[in-house]
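Now produce a polypeptide, keeping tokens residue-aligned:
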Amino acid sequence: MKPPSNAATNGWYNVLPDPPPARRPEGSVRVPWAVVGAGFTGLAAARRLAEHYPDQPIALIEAERVGFGTSGRNSGFVLDFHFMPYQLPFPDQALAEARKRLSSGGLAILCDLVQANQIACQWRQWGKLWVAAGSAGEKGLDEQRRGNDSLGASHTDLDAGEIARITGSGFYTGGVKVEGTALVNPAALCRGLVQTLPGNVTVYEDSPVLRHRRGRPHRLETANGEVVTDQVLLCTNVFSPSLCVGGSAMVALSIFASITRPMTDEEKSAMGGDGSHFGLLPSCMGGSTLQHTPDGRIVMRNSGYYGPGGTSDTAFMEHVRRIHAESIAKRWPQLAELDIEHTWGGCVAITRNEGHIFGRLGDGMWGSIGCNGAGVSNGTMAGTLLADHIAGQDSDLLSDQMRIPAPAWIPPEPIRGFIGRRRIRRNTVDTTER
């Protein structure tokens, strides 16, 4: 099997202090439970399993360092709910409401953990501000309003002047503010979560599973040793096909972000705005997602690439870096000389019908794979509910999770590549619309 591989850099991770040395499996480690993947889903599943089975050891196996992989590469929005405008009107209103409850539930779990454990991850429950920069974006704002109204979510309309007073940027023509969403450094949040796991969870990092021998027991082979387990939970999302799961259910797309160096006091003053550490989401597909962080950085996220290859393509990464620098300068011309410190990519899995692989996959084998947006909150909720499902603990939220359909079949290459590249082209907007 080919082990998971991300780009060699991750800006969110790079700005953190170096972690302690990684623990790896040595020889043969025997446990009743093993969770593969220490992203938000796997972290939540391991935590909840440990609560259900406090006297049983659990191995949590991560291919890279915790926080370096996909979960630590997103734009740092812990969304209270999420929907795609093309879904409107919702074909299944009850399912849309269930998805909202699941996202809100995941957000609540993380909020409680951050507060209880004083996790230093720049957590701030500022909300989310959907923004437009022209006619396409204004149409998108109308769709956000419709979706919010349909889900009973209140929102506040902001005009160009009000957005400028918050952000210091005159680039945007309007926006819709929704309270609830938290903004974070996702790599720091992952690290904090792993450091506060119950004592019966042992975390193995830098230990990609190179081979999974299924059976009773399961054998998870790594470079340094193996984990032998009665029950294995796969929380591996886009890398699941390397473990022979979900290969016909998902398309891999790479999305890119950059983070600037911290601004000087003079640059902060030149930026303007009210000093908020804000988060902006594009109201049209393919636009730019943006954070202004408490340590005075700007995080810009846009541009896509079919498959994982773009994250290791040096020329393409430099191209993306230039796009991000231009995107920042268009919003704040006064910050045109603000240096970008890191540019990185992350690979996400998209299913055709926003389906989710969830539950029993085989004898002693379980999985939660595919969040399709709002991955921090949805992944946290799904991992928690997977452990509940295994332990036989029913709840209204588990019933909500069970409503989500299994992923629809996606044709193989070259048709899959044609569909994926077309979607990227369709969702690429002109960030200079104004």
Notes: Residues 93-117 form the longest helix (25 residues). DSSP finds eleven helices and 18 strands in the chain.
